Amino acid sequence: MATIFSRLLHTRRKVLGIWAGALGGVCAMYTGLYPMMERIDMQSMIDAMPSAMVEALGYDDMTSAAGYIGSATYGLVALALLLVFAIGNGGKLIAGQEEDGALELELTSPAPRSSVYAQRLAGLWVQVAALVAVVYGVTLGLDLVQSLQIDQRDLAAATLQLLLVVGFFGTTTFAAGAMTGRKAVALGAGAGLAVVSWMFNAIGPLADQTWMAAVSPIGWYMDDNPITRGFHPVHAVQLLAGCAVAAGIGWWGFRKRDLMT
Q1: Burial class (CB in 10 A: 0-12, 13-18, 19+), 21
Q2: What is the domain extent for residue 190?
Q3: Could you tell me the pTM of the whole model?
Q4: What is the Cα–Cα distance from 100 to 118, expressed in whole angstroms?
């Protein structure tokens, strides 16, 4: 029953390795810049910006290592790159391969559709988890080498919630592709939701509309600073519930519709 899952990971190993190397390099570059940024009078620059913009960008605590890495690495670079990976793969793993005809062997095998769906979704999550682990490993390593004094429990909590938010958008894209069989629709749904969520989180504080960040999955992740805040159980439950709902809807649609049409 795990053949689909293992074959998926085997065929994706080179691409995953390239992504891991690139992501690790970018995160190392941004995190490694902190000692240089520490020598710049960043607080004066931040004080000159409108307070609402500072809050929207997550620059409230850019002068500390945890605040800088939480905003620059976990809140921007790593998050954006992981979303690109998760959404791109979510649109490909069923809808894209169904359009290419690469899914025919699995769909004509004795494995039920539910198993195909579950194993491919599990493959997506394992790939995302591997890349999130790279971000964590690079950040932790530089923290130890450069003595950044980041609380390791808060870093682990931020990493877990990074996995949940990226997994949510990847699952949503995957489910949309499974329901429709159209890669473009899946990518549009996942990317569109991510853009709207990001905009809501950024615009809400500027427009004094707190409800916008309250309904944004990016807002659930970015509430305060993901590293200085520590674990936020309510937002974690919201993201897990969103993943479960999206996966359930996609599973129902995949089982009901006519495939290869």
Answers
A1: exposed
A2: 3-256
A3: 0.89
A4: 20
